[in-house]
Q: What sequence folds into this?
């Protein structure tokens, strides 16, 4: 078995690793560290999140720095503030015995003037999010002339978050003789373009993700209808009061809706997504880490860099499309040798994906039943009884108090006292009383195709989403205006693809909608597959989307009864005989 001591690291770094308890390197560390230590080359490391990539690039980076040079020698780019902070802390831990090391982390949402002042001191390594780094470069707040190493961590996530243009600009500013190290879970075409334009003969290392699943994780799933997912989570929390975990959603809208629903029902939960300011995120994370919040509802991107070791559960509100995302999510639990549960709230449409994950990841999903009200009631009664037994006896009772209580209670025998205590506790459990209503949570219900003409799903539930929009001159306002103009230019000239029908939906940018979120919304409400949905354009007050004509009859009726931001969602097919307008009015112009 390879150890860190065999990788040729310097004595100060090896000492820090010993103190941190690092003994055996992961696969990506074993291959990357010897290649990158003491050498100048471009490098591509393909490995899923959670395989130790920070140490894979951080240790050789610290090994290669010249600590007599006070200039910035390395830039590390990360997709989120949390991950950037985590990387900076890791480097400081690895290099705590290195004289002259100074790591500075910069990210959006924090005081840029303060960051500029900090960069004026002796700094070797800058860890940054792309947007903030580009702002600092434009302000000439840091010198790049001495940069020898540029690290792109989670490169695919940076591209998914829309940083492609920023990355190209940043890399164009770098010295030509620098080494570029790129780490990513996947290798999409956009990353291949970065490799082509900014890297020279890179050494490539690929780590097989199939062998990297934590054996202490129990993989489970519940089969249910999509409309029952919120109630299922509440049942789980009622049945197991010790749950402490993260619920992963695909969209920001889902995180907000679910967290609000849980809070209204009295559960300790909060959401974290890209709409929160840095201060808001810090407050939520502080409460979560202190266990003031038992459940954190998050998107995959917002959860990057979150480091909590004692999570009991990871709950997948919606199953991710990519295997790497599932592995990254589930890896949040069962850390530091503990056991944990990764639970998927699955519909029938997810079963094929579960089988695929089982095959590729060499895991087994165990089926679990949704707790029924009777079971929850029984479990709560036993939890209450056990808590009484485990309550320490106090000596802080005066003789007068003891005699007064004894006089009231001694006329009852043991059976009567137990009955009265139990009755008092049950009065707090009205919704769990035997014979009470119980939802018909059948196994995933029927697929939309099986329901034929049934179109009542939208009436079974109402969605309410309150979304803010940027104010004029505020953050994001300029991007909104520019995006609006580009979208209008495209939508004005673009015709529907052959074989597709075009629809209008009255959800747009004023609702905070984005293309990925709208795609997920359409797929969830119609039961279509993503490949059945064509072009999507998001405008201010509404959006246009295309659906394969063969499936166009599955669209309009499925949005009835759904409310967004206080108004009914309306979807209409755009027909050419109506002059191109979804509301049926003719376009302005000369009438023939």
A:
């Amino acid at each position: 078995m390879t150890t860190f001591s065999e990788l040729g690291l310097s004595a100060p770094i090896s000492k820090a690793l010993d103190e941190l308890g690092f003994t055996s390197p992961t696969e990506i560390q074993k291959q990357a560290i010897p290649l990158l230590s003491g050498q100048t080359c471009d490098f591509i490391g393909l490995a899923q999140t959670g395989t130790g990539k920070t140490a894979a690039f951080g240790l050789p980076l610290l090994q290669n720095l010249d600590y007599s040079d006070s200039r910035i020698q390395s830039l590390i780019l990360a997709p989120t503030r949390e991950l950037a902070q985590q990387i900076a802390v890791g480097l400081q831990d690895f290099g705590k015995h290195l004289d002259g090391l100074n790591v500075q982390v910069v990210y959006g949402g924090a005081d840029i003037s303060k960051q500029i002042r900090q960069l004026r001191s002796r700094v070797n390594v800058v860890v940054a999010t792309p947007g903030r780094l580009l702002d600092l470069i434009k302000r000439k707040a840091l010198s790049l002339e001495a940069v020898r190493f540029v690290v792109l961590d989670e490169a695919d996530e940076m591209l998914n978050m829309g940083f492609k243009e920023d990355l190209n600009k940043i890399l164009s500013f770098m010295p030509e003789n620098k080494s570029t190290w790129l780490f990513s879970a996947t290798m999409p075409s956009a990353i291949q373009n970065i490799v082509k334009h900014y890297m020279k003969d890179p050494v490539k290392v690929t780590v097989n993700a199939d062998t990297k699943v934590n054996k202490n994780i129990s993989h489970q799933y519940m089969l249910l209808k999509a409309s029952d997912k919120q109630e299922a989570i509440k049942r789980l929390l009622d049945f197991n009061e010790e749950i402490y975990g993260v619920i992963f959603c695909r969209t920001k809208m889902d995180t907000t809706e679910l967290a609000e629903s849980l809070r209204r029902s009295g559960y300790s939960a909060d959401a974290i997504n890209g709409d929160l300011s840095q201060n808001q995120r810090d407050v939520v994370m502080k409460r979560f880490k202190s266990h003031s919040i038992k459940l954190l509802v998050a998107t995959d991107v917002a959860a990057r860099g979150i480091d909590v070791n004692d999570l009991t559960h990871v709950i997948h509100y919606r199953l991710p499309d990519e295997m790497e995302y599932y592995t990254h999510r589930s890896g949040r639990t069962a850390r530091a040798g503990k056991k944990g549960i990764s639970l998927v709230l699955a519909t029938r449409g997810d079963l094929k994906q579960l089988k695929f994950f089982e095959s590729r990841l060499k895991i087994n999903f165990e089926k679990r039943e949704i707790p029924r009200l009777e079971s929850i009631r029984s479990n709560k009664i036993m939890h209450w009884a056990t808590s009484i037994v485990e309550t320490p006896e106090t000596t802080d009772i005066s003789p007068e108090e003891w005699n007064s209580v004894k006089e009231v209670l001694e006329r009852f025998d043991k059976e009567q006292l137990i009955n009265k205590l139990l009755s008092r506790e049950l009065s707090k459990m009205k919704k769990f009383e035997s014979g009470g209503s119980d939802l018909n949570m059948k196994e995933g219900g029927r697929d939309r195709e099986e329901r034929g003409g049934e179109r009542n799903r939208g009436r079974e539930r109402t969605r309410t989403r309150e979304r803010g929009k940027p104010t004029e001159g505020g953050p994001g306002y300029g991007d909104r205006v520019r995006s609006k103009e580009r979208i209008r230019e495209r939508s004005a000239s673009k015709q529907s693809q052959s074989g597709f029908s075009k629809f209008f939906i009255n959800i747009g940018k004023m609702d905070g909608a984005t293309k990925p979120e709208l795609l997920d919304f359409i797929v969830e409400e119609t039961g279509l597959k993503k490949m059945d949905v064509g072009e999507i354009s998001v405008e201010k007050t509404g959006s246009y989307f295309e659906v394969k004509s063969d499936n166009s009859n599955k669209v309009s009726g499925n949005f009835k009864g759904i409310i967004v931001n206080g108004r009914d969602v309306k979807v209409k097919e755009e027909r050419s005989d109506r002059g191109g307008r979804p509301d049926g009015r003719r376009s302005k112009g000369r009438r023939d």
User: Anything to note?
Assistant: The two ends are 83 Å apart (CA to CA).
